Amino acid sequence: MRDMTAEETRTFLLEGTRTGKLATVRRDGRPHVAPIWFVLDGDDVVFNTGKDSLKGKALERDRRAALLVDDERPPFAYVLVEGTCSISENLDEMLEWATRIGGRYMGVGNADAFGRRNAVPGELLVRIHPTKVISRAEIAS
Fold it and tell me: Which domains, from first to last, does the chain contain?
């Protein structure tokens, strides 16, 4: 096992259509984990979610979050991002980022439709500002 470099970490996070597993804290303190689609803006992880979803409510109440992205193929690898979140309901900003997310996961031809579908009132644009990143590669080598 070895630590990834910063460049390897970024490349790993942006490779293909890997989903992130977002961990938040429920009102009663229990953990909640949900898959998300995301992109990067510098070091920030950017995604959108419904304001009334469990993760949306949890993040509005407690801005701490963790995101795990892994490669399940041997020799296995993962990146864990811990941080605090900022939340925006600005629809113009949301459209830009939802379109980028759509391009990554749905393909360029569907990016605009995905962006318009997800940049609406009731949605949140969330940025995880990393405070700690752990990235490991070649776990089983």
Answer: 2-137 (2.30.110.10)
